[in-house]
């Protein structure tokens, strides 16, 4: 009986100690792995993007070749704030091309399934993260972005970054948005989208960092590789 009572007292004494250790470790774990549930300290599942479908514009705004509009896609990630989500605004551009193209499979991410003459790109430059511009007149690219003169077959609207002058071709064959000049290690990132009636619906955004060449980019056929397209 004496033995049991001693063990019981030891156990009771340990309760506040254990509780104190958990109280100290919980904020530490939450600092390392933020979450919105106080005791969910051992969550290891990666954050899942949950942007959801968003109508970003209509095809009516893209009536003619090289018409464009800018938009913002709100990408959400599970966790981080009282609503359970962290939201990131991703600036984008939608462009009507003069002909149909097919998106490359970028890191397993396909922007659009099938051929399309409407293309969407994220405007966050893969070099160091500036926001690049759509330039309807290639002369503006030569004049305002470091003097790059596109070859004859690319003298059309281009996308250009004002920070270090990376230039992207929205009509690049089999890889729309490929980088054709400048330090960017790869082409412009895609949105996943489809056309529903006249609505342009974005359902996801290609994720990735900046200032690095990703493994699939290093192997041919590369995104962001050398500018080797033959004139068509
Ligand atoms: S951030 Fe765009 S070229 Fe450097």
What does this structure look like?
With 232 residues, the protein is an alpha+beta fold. The protein is built from 3 helices and 12 strands, in the order αβββββββαβββββα. A 4-stranded antiparallel sheet has the order 7-8-9-10. Strands 1-12-11 form a 3-stranded antiparallel sheet, with no helix packed on it. A 3-stranded antiparallel sheet has the order 2-3-6, with no helix packed on it. The longest helix is centred in the N-terminal third of the chain and has 31 residues, at 2-32. The N and C termini lie far apart (94 Å). Residues 125, 127-130, 161, 163-164, 166, 182-184 line the site of FE2/S2 (inorganic) cluster.
Summarize the structure.
This protein is α+β, with helices and mostly antiparallel strands and 232 residues long.
DSSP strand tally: 12
The assigned CATH architecture of the largest domain is: 3-layer Sandwich
For the record, the count of structural domains works out to 2
Q: Point out poorly predicted stretches.
A: 213-232
Rounded to an integer, what's the Rg over CA atoms?
25 Å
Blueprint of the fold:
Layout: H1 2-32, E1 54-58, E2 68-78, E3 85-102, E4 105-106, E5 109-110, E6 115-122, E7 133-135, H2 138-144, E8 158-160, E9 167-169, E10 178-181, E11 191-196, E12 199-205, H3 215-218
Antiparallel strand pairs: 1-12, 2-3, 3-6, 4-5, 7-8, 8-9, 9-10, 11-12
The structure holds FE2/S2 (inorganic) cluster.
């Amino acid at each position: 009986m004496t033995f049991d009572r001693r063990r019981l007292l030891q156990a009771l004494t340990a309760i506040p100690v254990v509780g104190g250790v958990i109280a100290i470790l919980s904020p530490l774990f939450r600092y390392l792995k933020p979450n919105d549930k106080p005791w969910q300290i051992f969550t290891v599942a990666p954050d899942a993007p949950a942007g959801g479908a968003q109508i970003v514009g209509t095809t009516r705004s893209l009536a003619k070749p090289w018409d464009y509009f800018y938009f913002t896609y709100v990408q959400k990630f599970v966790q981080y704030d009282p609503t359970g989500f962290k939201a990131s605004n991703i600036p984008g551009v939608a462009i009507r091309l003069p002909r149909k193209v097919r998106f490359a499979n970028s890191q397993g991410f396909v922007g659009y399934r099938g051929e399309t003459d409407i293309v969407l790109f994220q405007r966050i430059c893969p070099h160091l993260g500036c926001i690049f511009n759509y330039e309807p007149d290639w002369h503006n690219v030569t004049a305002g972005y470091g003097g790059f003169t596109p070859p004859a077959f690319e003298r059309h609207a281009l996308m250009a970054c004002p920070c270090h002058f990376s230039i992207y071709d929205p009509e690049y064959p089999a890889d729309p948005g490929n980088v054709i000049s400048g330090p960017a290690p790869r082409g412009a990132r895609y949105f996943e989208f489809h056309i529903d009636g006249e609505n342009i619906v974005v359902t996801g955004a290609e994720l990735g960092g900046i200032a690095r060449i990703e493994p699939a980019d290093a192997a041919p056929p590369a995104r962001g590789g050398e500018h080797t397209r033959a004139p068509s």
